[in-house]
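Design job #97: recover the sequence.
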C-alpha cells in the first residue's frame, strides 16, 4: 500500500465529475490512504475540507492557508481553522509556510500567518505540513522560535539538499518527495532522497502539480505516487515494496492514521 501524503484532490483544476474516477484509479494503483491538503486556493480550500473527507473513507485532511494567501489570514480565518481542526478526520495543519519565490503575500504577512498557524498546531496538538520555497533558513528559524518541534510535521515537496534535510530532521520534521525526484535534472533532490533515512521520509504527488516521469507534462493525480516510490527505491537500491511499507508506516505514525 502507498499513502499519498499531499494531494489537492478538490482543486479547481479537476471538474467535479472527474474526482470519483480519479479516486478509483488511485485505489487500483495501490494507494490506500490520501492526505487531502485543504490549502492553496485562498480560504475556499479550507472550507471544502470536510466535504472531501466525509465523501471518501480513505481520505484525511490538513487545513490551513497557503503562504501565497497569507494576506487573508485574520482572526476570523484562524477561528474557523480552529473549528475545522476539531474534526476527527483533520489530521494536520497545513500547508502553511513561506514562499519567497513568488511573494504573492508580503514577507511580513507570511511570517505572521506562519507563526499563527504554528501556534494553532500546538494548541490542537496536530502536526504541521510545511511549504518552503526559497526560504530555508528563515523558515527553520521561525519554527524554532515558535516551538514547532513539539508537534513536528513534514516539509512537503522537499527542495533542499542533503545538509538541509538533516537540519529539518533535527527539528522533528520529516521530508516528503514528489515527482520532482523523477526528473532528469533533479540531481540535488535525488541525492537527498538517496542519503536521507527512509524511516524519516514520506511520498506524495502534490496533485495536480509536479507530475512524475513517465507522465510528466500531464496533470498529476494520486495514483502516480507509485512512480515516486519506484524512483526512491531505485536511488536507494531497495525493493519498491520496502519503500511502500516504510513510508506508509511513517505516514501512519505522523498523521495518527489507523
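Job complete. Output follows.
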Amino acid at each position: 500500500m502507498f499513502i499519498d501524503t499531499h494531494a489537492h484532490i478538490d482543486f479547481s483544476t479537476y471538474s467535479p465529475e472527474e474526482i470519483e474516477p480519479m479516486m478509483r484509479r488511485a485505489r487500483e494503483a495501490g494507494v490506500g490512504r490520501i492526505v487531502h491538503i485543504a490549502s492553496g486556493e485562498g480560504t475556499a480550500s479550507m472550507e471544502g475540507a470536510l466535504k472531501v473527507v466525509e465523501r471518501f473513507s480513505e481520505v484525511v485532511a490538513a487545513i490551513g492557508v497557503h503562504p501565497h494567501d497569507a494576506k487573508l489570514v485574520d482572526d476570523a480565518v484562524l477561528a474557523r481553522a480552529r473549528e475545522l481542526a476539531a474534526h476527527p478526520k483533520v489530521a494536520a495543519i497545513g500547508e502553511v509556510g513561506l514562499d519567497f519565490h513568488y511573494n504573492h503575500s508580503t514577507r511580513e504577512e507570511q511570517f505572521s500567518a506562519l507563526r499563527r498557524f504554528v501556534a494553532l498546531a500546538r494548541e490542537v496538538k496536530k502536526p504541521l505540513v510545511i511549504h518552503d520555497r526559497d526560504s530555508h533558513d528563515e523558515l527553520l528559524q521561525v519554527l524554532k522560535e515558535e516551538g514547532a518541534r513539539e508537534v513536528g510535521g513534514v516539509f512537503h515537496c522537499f527542495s533542499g539538499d542533503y545538509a538541509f534535510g538533516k537540519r529539518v530532521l533535527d527539528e522533528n520534521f520529516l521530508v516528503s518527495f514528489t515527482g520532482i525526484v523523477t526528473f532528469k535534472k533533479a540531481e540535488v533532490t535525488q541525492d537527498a532522497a538517496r542519503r536521507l533515512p527512509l524511516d524519516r521520509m514520506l511520498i506524495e504527488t502534490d496533485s495536480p502539480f509536479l507530475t512524475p516521469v513517465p507522465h510528466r507534462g500531464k496533470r498529476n493525480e494520486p495514483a502516480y505516487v507509485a512512480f515516486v516510490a519506484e524512483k526512491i527505491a531505485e536511488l536507494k537500491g531497495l525493493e519498491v515494496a520496502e519503500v511502500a511499507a516504510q513510508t506508509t508506516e511513517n505516514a501512519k505514525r505522523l498523521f495518527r492514521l489507523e
